[in-house]
Amino acid sequence: MSAAxxxxxxxxxxxxxxxxxxxxxxxxxxxxxxxxxxxxxVWSDTSPAGxxxxxxELGNLLREDRDELAALERQGAGKPTARALGEVDFAARxxxxxxxxxxxxxxxxxxxxxxxxxYTDRVPVGVCAAIAPNNYPLLxxxxxxxxxxxxxxxxxxxxxxxxxxxxxxFVDRAAAVLPEGVLTAVYxxxxxxxVLCDHPAVGMVSFTGSTAAGRExxxxxxxxxxxxxxxxxxxxxxxxxxxxxxxxxxRAVVTGFTGNTGQMCVAGTRLIVDRAVHTEFVxxxxxxxxxxxxxxxxxxxxxxxxxxSRAAADRAADVVEEAVAGGAKVILPPGSSxxxxxxxxxxxxxxVIVDGAPADGRAWREELFAPVLSVVPFDTDAEALALAHxxxxxxxxSVWTSDADRVERFGRALRAGMVWVNTWGxxxxxxxxxxxxxxxxxxxxxxxxxxxxxxxxxxxxxxxxGR
Length: 467
Hints:
Layout: E1 6-10, E2 15-20, H1 25-43, H2 48-64, H3 66-77, H4 81-101, E3 108-110, E4 116-124, E5 127-131, H5 137-150, E6 154-158, H6 165-174, E7 183-185, H7 190-198, E8 202-208, H8 211-223, E9 228-231, E10 237-240, H9 246-258, E11 270-274, H10 278-290, H11 310-325, E12 329-331, E13 340-341, E14 348-349, E15 352-355, H12 362-365, E16 372-378, H13 381-388, E17 393-394, E18 396-400, H14 404-413, E19 418-421, E20 436-437, E21 440-441, H15 450-453, E22 454-462
Parallel strand pairs: 5-6, 5-8, 6-7, 8-9, 10-11, 10-18, 11-16, 15-16, 18-19
Antiparallel strand pairs: 1-2, 3-4, 4-22, 9-21, 12-15, 13-14, 17-20
């Protein structure tokens, strides 16, 4: 990185948009100090009703700035306009939900003897470090910010180094609503994140990103006994039985591996399909995927924008080439001969189906963050379940069948934090989500988010009877 700052690229063209200096250790320390002072001062004196009202104002800001924020998401993350607008809308709904949650009752009163009152409650952790990824820059930052603020914490947010624009705009606008220091931002890569995680005044860290980076966050926070919430990677299975609604399942599979150009931790990138319908079903999926348009994000007809970087696009091509060498059949859109899609210097890839993916290959085993679907057939229910669990991840899973008994068995047996039956991808701001295994721990959204952003207390109050 040059002294002028880190280059921020437009993934649709590969060209520099601007340069943004990384926040150094003094800047991180200043942001945390401001957040800590705000937590101990004005924010601790702000009632739940007051926090709720301020969060509603933030939700209104998101709606007022909807078009501008979507344009920044398009420029920084390469998102097609319709998708970017939808994510801003979702972010606003999340803020609204936590504005209400700020006033929900917490704690319990316990039976006590004469002269004693015993109760439990929850208290904020203090300064929360919110580290957001590059695939949903604004949305996932807002998930963390809204929950932390609702429960009485202050926040220092660090967006991914590739995608700072929308979060920076939101933080700047929030300064007109929130007291000084309640929400601040720092910018940069891994080193900025390390300094933030190590700061002794940080009360907890909420991180979304790769499993490898999540491990480092957990290790660093362990030294200070600092709690963490980790939303990490996935390699999610979609299991399709012969008795499923195959048309609906095919549409869901295509959405599951191509949505956000495959850059989703919950992406359904492992298709496990009943051998009896394997050929037919893969053909349906290929036909639907081929109809998707890869193109510039600003074009209203674009379905798949670019990946976040040249390295991500090259990696997808390398993994597919490796799968071919391992004996897999690769299905590309008609007229395409390569994974990389040549367009205006951007980081574009075609949707790819790897049929018969080698069990030990990266296409089957690794999270790729690209629209690459690996397919393996099965013969029995037991084999389907074993294939679904043939991964260290456990973020999400989907099963498609019309057999009610199988619905119950697979719904109970699948080891994933999110399980979808005859559907895929449903997410609501009121439902808490998390991962299992290498996909992390901690809860985002919904009523259980309070568990990560607060700590429980037990309180005994002695008093004299009759007074």
